[in-house]
Amino acid sequence: MTEPVPPPLSSPRTWYWPFGLGAGLVALAVLCFYRSYFNVVDNPTLIGLFMLIGGVAEGILAVFGRAWTEFVKDLAPALLYVIVGMVVIADPLAGSFWLTLVLAAAFITGAVYRATAWLRDRPLRGWTMLAVAAAVTIVVWLALVWTWPRSGIWVLGTVAGVGLAVTGWSWIQRGWSARTAHEEL
Q1: What percent of the chain lies above the pLDDT cut of 70?
Q2: pLDDT value for 9
Q3: Which runs of E-coded beta strand occur in the chain?
Q4: What is the pLDDT of residues 114-158, one digit of tens each?
Q5: Rounded to whole angstroms, how far apart are CA atoms 20 and 41?
Q6: Number of domains in the chain
Q7: Mean confidence (pLDDT) of the chain
């Protein structure tokens, strides 16, 4: 007579781990938005801490809660959140200002790419959305550059909040779809 084997940690009943991680990341995103716009005392330090917490939680799930084939894909954003969170915690003001400049550089790079793609793809359908995306990116870039260094205070919280919210929502969807499909994650 054989004894029943207990289910592994990655059984279909563990859908709640990614779902819970997603809910936690969305909660951190809400706190980032709140701290950025309504309570600006010690903003960069707390937002850096929120990013660090989110990165550690995502890293734990990448190590213990997933198949090893997905390990690098899930660990990379976790490491990025941890590194940026530590940089911001180490020197909150300088970290937020420098990250704002890096973000501005990324925006202008994206705008140049979208503008050249717009010129290249004009014979194709959908080229107008590339032009709109390039124009919006340039406007956001100008807003960042014109308000720098003051923009470093609110940009960090906004970008961290959006990143945490989107990542959290994707984890919620992954957990929920695994629950409804009774699949392992």
Answers
A1: 82
A2: 44
A3: none
A4: 788 778 777 766 667 777 777 887 887 888 778 877 777 777 777
A5: 29
A6: 1
A7: 76
Average pLDDT estimate for 2-22:
62
Q: What is the pLDDT of residues 76-86, one digit of tens each?
A: 878 888 888 88
| Residue-number span of the structural domain to which 29 is assigned | 16-177
Contacts of 64 (CB under 8 A, 6+ apart): 9
Only one residue has tokens 């629950």, namely: 179
Question: Is residue 168 assigned to a domain?
Answer: yes
Question: Residue 185's closest CA among 9, 7, 3, 1?
Answer: 9
- Tell me how far apart the alpha carbons of residues 10 and 39 are, in angstroms, rounded to a whole number: 40
pLDDT number for residue 6? 45
Q: How far apart are CA 115 and CA 118, in angstroms?
A: 5
Q: Is residue 99 part of a domain?
A: yes
Give the DSSP H/E element, type plus range, for residue 26: helix 16-37
Is 9 within the bounds of a domain?
A: no
Kindly state whether residue 160 falls inside one of the protein's structural domains: yes
- 12, amino acid identity: P
- Gap between the Cα atoms of 118 and 48, Å rounded: 36
Alpha helix (H) ranges present in 65-150?
Answer: 71-90, 92-120, 127-147
Residue indicated by tokens 């207990």: 6
The rounded distance, in Å, linking the Cα atoms of 141 and 103 is: 9
